[in-house]
Design brief:
single chain; about 70 residues; alpha+beta; 3-stranded antiparallel sheet
Length: about 70
């Protein structure tokens, strides 16, 4: 079954000119993910931009090399 993510927060850092969304998993609210979205987005655009941010994150993680600490 697909997870349901809740967009719990949209925040703006005015000094750094960055915006972020925070996702919570509906079945486990202790799981959180924060991703950057375009600065100053409108609330009406948050779902579309959040999906784009997730897609970018997935692509970055897919291409990443994962190494053990040490």
């Amino acid at each position: 079954m697909a997870s349901e993510l809740i967009i719990a927060n949209l925040g703006h850092d005015l000094q750094a000119k960055k915006s972020f969304v925070t996702f919570l998993w509906s079945d486990d609210p202790t799981k959180r993910l924060g991703l950057e979205v375009p600065f100053g987005i409108k609330i009406e655009d948050v779902e579309t931009e959040a999906r784009k941010a997730i897609g970018g994150f997935v692509g970055e993680m897919t291409e990443s090399v994962i190494k053990p600490l040490g």
